[in-house]
């Protein structure tokens, strides 16, 4: 079956005209025997777990339209059949479908036979879908040797076309003699091959039929639904520095409109070729060049309801998970498995663990959906392992997409509308937030993103959908993702002398969408620096040692185990708050709001990070994720206490950070600061530049305390009376 497989139909006609040779007869006999074997398999295959259970017969009666057949079952029944199907699927699949139709007709006869009329029902069309437990092939290994063979590949769908009607056979009529002929169409993206001449023999005196006399009669032809999908390699399978490959898929009948962009799939299909209509290769010399595509004959969705990856867990695994969850210090154990190569940052590790497990998604009676995913922002100094956390989460989460702030646009994060070259119609391609549906999006350099791009992910972070209204496409895509973002303060380092507003240079609207905001500082302490240095050196020294092979294997195994445990918890466990936990949470929230109000009154300015109802929901989600780690279905008061503690050390600390005007100021000190301010104003003069160092030196020579002068400068800077230019030069503004 090369690129000229259409010639089969000509040879068919030749055989029907000429006498039958021996070969076609033997081929027909073997086809008949294969058909009988398929029928026997569908009728007589017994389930291995229990006797007298015929799974394929029963599923045919329950769902007469399509039947899922496991290749392993077929191999157990007859070892030749899978090999035949794999080597020539285009020949044997129609036989299999034919057999299924006949078996279904026979099964139905037995049911309706009691009513007196014993006529055979017409065999129906049954679509056979194949599944197999074999390993998938890489998209990059598919070549000419795989053409017309059965293959299995996996990837992410990035685009789906509209549904078209594809003819299975075309009725053509001769313009001259009105002779009607039925021309079969090749399945997939192949077309029909219409004969050049009419086979009507003209009577004497009648005008003979011309060349190419046929006109298609569309109404009499038979159609099935067909749709094309675009499958892209899984991000984890792409070699470093390469672009991900795409493959065109063609699905028909019952597989149509079952897949939305962003779904992870494993498909079985026939690797086929077609002539691209207006491709760039369509020169005169490139007659023999064909484009590959895959005709899908079986789809396994890799995602169970919410989380991705195979959702089948063995009994041993489930027992092991339950045993692990029953241990008293399960929370500590999980946190120790989070980024073990990073020293310290205990609370950040706990927050990342909560983010990976996630809270419970809720559907309210009025149709409102409340998100269960937790968003975390790490803000702070360079070289505090922020990006390492992101990389760890990308490896550990069942589904994760890693992107950097500068290198991602709004369309790349959400979804873009693209025009198809051949059909000229628009279709949607999902971006990072859509592809990571059910997982985590890690965004590095969050502060370097353009503000208009950052606005695009507002909706994705709270409503967990992405609405598109572009180029005549108006739709809503799901993006049920957690966001883990890392950012630096505007000045590069976290400056303790600035207020929280100046250090966290992000809008309130986006900050309130983060459940936890950690300020990660690089504190210079002798003892701590020594421990960190020894830890880093140890990591470097032990990496790649001769003993390292076993260690590598165990490390990989542990990562895999954590991934599986995560999947199990996310699919099996959806905790809710207990009564006492609700009451305790209410009291905590009211107290936090009261504290923030008091702080605002004292300082005269609102907190940099707002404490709103969203933050209350954040504590609820944290409590649920802590319960989920222990596979508990109820979030207790203990979980709420830990959630509030985590929230306090992250977001509340960030809201309180920076220095405020009234911090530890006695009346005498306030008086001295006022004097220092008047001296500074007299010395500098409005609109003049002066170096900060020079100003402080001059005023200390006049007998003033250096710390008082610096504090006066900070307070004036907060009031916008002093502005800092490059190299710490200050300029006095009009007050």
UniProtKB/TrEMBL annotation:
Localization in the cell: Nucleus
Primary subcellular site in the record, as a coarse category: nucleus
InterPro entries named in the record: MCM, MCM5, MCM5_C, MCM_CS, MCM_dom, MCM_lid, MCM_N, MCM_OB
PROSITE patterns reported in the protein's UniProt record: MCM_1 (PS00847), MCM_2 (PS50051)
Enzyme class: hydrolase
Family annotation (CDD domains): MCM5 (cd17756)
Record flagged with keyword Iron-sulfur: no
One BP annotation, GO: DNA replication initiation
SMART domains: MCM (SM00350)
Nucleotide-binding listed as a keyword: yes
Documented EC number(s): 3.6.4.12
Domain (MCM C-terminal AAA(+) ATPase): residue spans on this chain: 330-536
CC per GO annotation: MCM complex; THO complex
Entry-linked SUPFAM superfamilies: Nucleic acid-binding proteins, P-loop containing nucleoside triphosphate hydrolases
One term of GO molecular function: single-stranded DNA helicase activity
Keywords: ATP-binding, Cell cycle, DNA replication, DNA-binding, Helicase, Hydrolase, Nucleotide-binding, Nucleus
Family stated for the protein in its record: Belongs to the MCM family.
Subunit structure: Component of the MCM2-7 complex.
Function summary: Probable component of the MCM2-7 complex (MCM complex) that may function as a DNA helicase and which is essential to undergo a single round of replication initiation and elongation per cell cycle in eukaryotic cells.
Name listed for the protein in its UniProt record: DNA replication licensing factor MCM5
Provenance organism: Fragaria vesca
Record lineage: Eukaryota, Viridiplantae, Streptophyta, Embryophyta, Tracheophyta
């Amino acid at each position: 079956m090369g690129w000229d497989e259409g010639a089969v139909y000509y040879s068919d006609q030749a055989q029907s005209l000429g006498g039958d040779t021996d070969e076609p007869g033997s081929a027909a006999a073997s086809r008949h025997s294969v058909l009988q074997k398929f029928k026997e398999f569908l009728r007589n295959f017994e389930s291995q777990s229990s006797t007298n259970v015929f799974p394929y017969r029963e599923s045919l009666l329950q769902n007469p339209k399509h039947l899922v057949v496991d290749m392993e079952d077929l191999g157990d029944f007859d070892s030749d059949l899978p090999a035949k199907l794999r080597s020539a699927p285009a020949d044997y699949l129609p036989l299999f479908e034919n057999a299924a139709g006949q078996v279904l007709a026979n099964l139905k006869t037995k049911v309706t036979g009691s009513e007196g009329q014993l006529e055979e029902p017409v065999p129906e069309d049954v679509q056979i879908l194949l599944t197999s437990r074999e390993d998938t092939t890489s998209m990059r290994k598919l070549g000419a040797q795989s053409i017309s063979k059965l293959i299995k590949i996996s990837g992410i769908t990035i685009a789906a076309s509209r549904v078209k009607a594809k003819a299975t056979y075309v009725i053509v009529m001769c313009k001259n003699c009105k002779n009607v002929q039925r021309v079969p169409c090749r399945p997939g993206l192949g077309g029909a091959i219409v004969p050049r001449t009419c086979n009507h023999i003209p009577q004497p005196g009648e005008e003979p039929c011309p060349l190419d006399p046929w006109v298609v009669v569309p109404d009499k032809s038979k159609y099935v639904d067909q749709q094309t999908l675009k499958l892209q390699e899984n991000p984890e399978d792409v070699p470093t520095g390469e672009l991900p490959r795409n493959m065109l898929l063609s699905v028909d009948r019952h597989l149509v409109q079952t897949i939305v962009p962003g779904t992870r799939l494993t498909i079985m299909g026939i690797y086929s070729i077609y002539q691209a209509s207006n491709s760039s290769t369509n020169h005169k010399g490139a007659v023999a060049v064909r484009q590959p595509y895959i005709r899908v004959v079986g789809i396994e969705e890799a995602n169970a309801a919410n989380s991705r990856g195979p959702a089948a867990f063995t009994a041993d695994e489930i027992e092991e998970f339950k045993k692990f969850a029953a241990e008293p210090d399960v929370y500590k154990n999980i946190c120790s498995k989070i980024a073990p190569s990073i020293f310290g940052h205990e609370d950040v590790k706990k927050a990342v663990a909560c983010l990976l497990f996630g809270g419970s998604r809720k559907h309210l009676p009025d149709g409102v959906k409340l998100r269960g995913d937790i968003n975390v922002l790490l803000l702070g100094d360079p070289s505090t392992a922020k990006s390492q956390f992101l990389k760890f989460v990308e490896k550990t989460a069942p589904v994760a997409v890693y992107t950097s702030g500068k290198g991602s646009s709004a369309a790349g994060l959400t979804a873009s509308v693209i025009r198809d070259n051949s059909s000229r119609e628009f279709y949607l391609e999902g971006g990072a937030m859509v592809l990571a549906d059910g997982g985590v999006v890690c965004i590095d350099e969050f502060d370097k993103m353009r503000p208009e791009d950052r606005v695009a992910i507002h909706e994705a972070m709270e409503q967990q959908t992405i609405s598109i209204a572009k180029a005549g496409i108006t739709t809503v895509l799901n993006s049920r993702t957690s966001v883990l973002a890392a950012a630096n303060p505007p000045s590069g380092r976290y400056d303790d002398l600035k207020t929280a507003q100046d250090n966290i240079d992000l809008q309130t609207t986006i900050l309130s969408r983060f459940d936890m905001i950690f300020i990660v500082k690089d504190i210079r302490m002798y003892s701590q620096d020594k421990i960190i240095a020894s830890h880093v050196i140890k990591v470097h020294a032990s990496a790649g040692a001769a003993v390292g092979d076993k260690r590598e294997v165990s490390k990989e195994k542990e990562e895999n185990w954590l991934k599986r445990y995560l999947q199990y918890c996310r699919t099996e466990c959806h905790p809710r708050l207990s009564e006492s936990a609700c009451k305790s949470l209410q009291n905590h929230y009211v107290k936090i709001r009261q504290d923030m109000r008091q702080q605002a009154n004292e300082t005269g300015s609102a907190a940099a990070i707002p404490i709103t109802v969203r933050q209350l929901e954040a504590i609820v989600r944290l409590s649920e994720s802590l319960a989920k780690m222990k596979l508990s279905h109820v979030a207790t008061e203990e979980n709420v206490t830990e959630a509030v503690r985590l929230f306090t050390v992250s977001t509340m600390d960030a809201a309180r950070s920076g220095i405020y005007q009234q911090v530890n100021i006695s009346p005498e000190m306030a008086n001295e600061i006022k004097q220092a301010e008047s001296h500074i104003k007299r010395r500098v003069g409005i609109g003049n530049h002066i170096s900060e160092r020079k100003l402080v030196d001059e005023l200390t020579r006049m007998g003033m305390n250096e710390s008082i002068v610096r504090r006066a400068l900070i307070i004036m800077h907060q009031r916008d009376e002093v502005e800092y230019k490059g190299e710490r030069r200050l300029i006095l503004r009009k007050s």
